[in-house]
Amino acid sequence: MADFKIAPSILAADFAKLGQEVDDVIASGADIVHFDVMDNHYVPNLTIGPLVCEALRKHGVTAEIDVHLMVKPVDRIIPDFIAAGASYVTFHPEASEHVDRTLQMIREAGCKSGLVFNPATPLDILKHVMDKVDVILLMSVNPGFGGQSFIPETLNKCREARKMIDESGFDIRLEIDGGVKVDNIREVAEAGADMFVAGSAIFGARNDKDANGYNTVVQKMRDELAKAKV
User: How many structural domains compose the chain?
Assistant: First the structure.
């Protein structure tokens, strides 16, 4: 089976007990903490900053933290997140005046770098910077809010991105974010993705009968991924 990674988005977690939420979801078998940063400028919402990332590290979170910057401009805030303990820093090409330079800055600081593509943003820019990206993140919803439905056209875009990665020869992750859940994760994997962001699909699974309801949904996702023909 391919090396699939499940990345719960803490945007859907209970922020009153965020450290415990992250501990529980990683204990359930998830791999990466997905960290959505919104600035009420590039996207119409306001979320969290580097202090929360730093707090999770101080709490004892050792899993990789995947910081998705929905922020414009991005260059000023990137060093703060790297200092706070980010493992990946991804940003939207529209949010940087010099995409190549921003990618270099992330890499030179010892972090994994990535580009994020909104549903209607073409992948053209990628062919010029494939040597500088560690992850390509495709948005399968329009960014700004959790709980949206998956946009089916993203599957075609995913196939296109997978082809570009395979032909490049570089070791690049292909990540999908938005509306990913148990009943479509297999189809997304078969389109070429190997890293899956899920917010409400995972964090909405806790219930009173199961102290850690995340176990069930993460395992169901693993079961679906095991069936994927890739």
Answer: 1
